[in-house]
Amino acid sequence: MRDDKSVPPTPRRPALFAAATLTVLCLGAAGCGGGGSDTAQARPGPDGTGAASPSPARTAPSPAPSHSGPASAKHSPAPSPSAPDAASGPLSGKTVVIDPGHNPRNHLHTAEIARQVDIGTTHKECDTTGTSTNGGYAEAEFTLDVAHRMRTLLKAQGAKVLLTYDNDRPFGPCVDERARIGNKAGADAVVSVHADGSAVGNRGFHVILPAPVRGGGADTSLIVGPSRDLGTRIAGLFVRATGSAPSNYIGGNTGLDTRKDLGGLNLSTVPKVFIECGNMRDPKDAALLTSASWRQKAAQGIADGISSYLNG
Ligand code: ZN
Known about the structure:
The chain is of the alpha/beta class. It has helices at residues 19-22, 70-73, 110-114, 139-155, 175-185, 224-242, 263-266, 283-289, 292-311, and strands at 95-100, 116-118, 123-125, 160-163, 189-196, 206-210, 214-215, 218-219, 256-259, 272-279.
């Protein structure tokens, strides 16, 4: 979810329409939900602040059927010469970095995550706590679970997969560090996984693409194009895997949004997108997000999008 201090962490407004205005998207490298950080800014409207609206022309990409499944191939009784194993799979030689948004223990380290970090164009909080469902399922638990499922799927195709953290640190990483991890790995693709914390009635997923940004240590000029390709493939394949519709409150039903206020995107030098898999504050979306079988589908859709992008 997008963090924004100026917005109450749990907007449970019954109304749908105010939606975009009230939304607390949480993205960014930091947080949605409870207080958020990287993403933290109340969006004034669907195309509010600086967040460029996505090009309607790039709607759901046609799902590339190409990567249908090396993983299951190994169970085929027929000795298919093309059945790849992890070492020689279609993503062999590719590096994917998965960034699970927030950290389940960020709320215990409020001072540390409130520290301002340089995101090139401005400064933002190191990280945010993220949002949660009304039942208490934390966004940070969701993102880590989906990241693990994605890792399994991508490694089975031969990719080298790194996580920006894996329950191995008390808080963070900060948004700038999350970006640097992908850069230092020379990642071929990076996806930051999130779930939103918006008003009831706001439903669906959206992928966030980097806007053209230049300033300070930020320069996205080389990643805007490939990131859009990555993001559109993920959006299309997420629909196919989960059956979920694109967001009804951001992106004009394209499932795509573009932002220039996220440090995790601004500081990336490799193709990178965020995905808000659903709205944790909407009961219907929350029922999906808390379902392990749905999370597997979500992970499959994102991994399929990455595979499609990397396979060209
Ligand atoms: Zn988030």
